[in-house]
Amino acid sequence: MKIAICDDDKAVLEQLRGFIRQYAAQRMLVYTILEFDQSERLLEAVRRNPDIRILFLDIYMSPLSGIDLAETLRAEGNDCAIIFVTISTDHYARSYEVNAEHYLVKPITYSRVETALNRCEALLVSAARYASFFSGGHEFRVPFRQIRFVEVFRNQTVIHADGELSIRCTLETVMNQLSDPRFIRTHRSFLLNMDYVAAKCGNDIMLNTGEKVPLSRTCEKNFEREYGRYLTSSMTGDHL
Known about the structure:
The chain is an alpha/beta fold. The protein has helices spanning 10-26, 39-48, 66-75, 92-97, 110-118, 121-124, 171-177, 217-236, and strands at residues 2-6, 32-36, 52-58, 81-86, 102-105, 130-135, 138-143, 149-153, 156-160, 164-167, 183-187, 190-193, 197-201, 204-207, 212-214. The chain has 2 domains: 2-126, Rossmann fold, CATH 3.40.50; 130-236, CATH 2.40.50.1020. Helix 1 (10-26) crosses helix 5 (110-118). The two termini are 22 Å apart.
């Protein structure tokens, strides 16, 4: 999937690009960001490329305004998500006429961009990073962000996500699939997604789901170091 940004202000383009990348990193999403400083070029690109599914569109552009571009796309049957970016609320009513997903008033903040993209959740599902596992002769694709932890139980490796998936493979094989620094070994039999950590209690790590994962002494120092990095990245808005 692709997200397009169109604004004739270079500073706004850079700011939006940074916020969108931050959003993607926090949610383990992968998509391409395209940038345009002219609405006519964006219109041509959207017509050629159906993978462009979300538009951040400045209203005050010429000769083709953001509203005009949106009306053209809707008349052509394009149902991409449109997020207007503008300095005024004057066109708020017209944005509904073209079924816009959201309306951002400058100055732009990360929280506002986050809210706008959250409203595009159905489209962003296709951009989720996922791992493929085979069980019972079937392939299961599990989004990274749904995986809370992985454990080896007897001769089975269990993926704890929205449901539980049991597979026959080693924990090392699963680790190779989950190529994201948020996944960390806490025990010879456990792999944890740090997004779900609530607290460390002695030899256990409590998750925000109420579950707990053991932390072995051999993994403790590495966990404390990597979780410290994770917290710092979360507070500064940087991604791991």
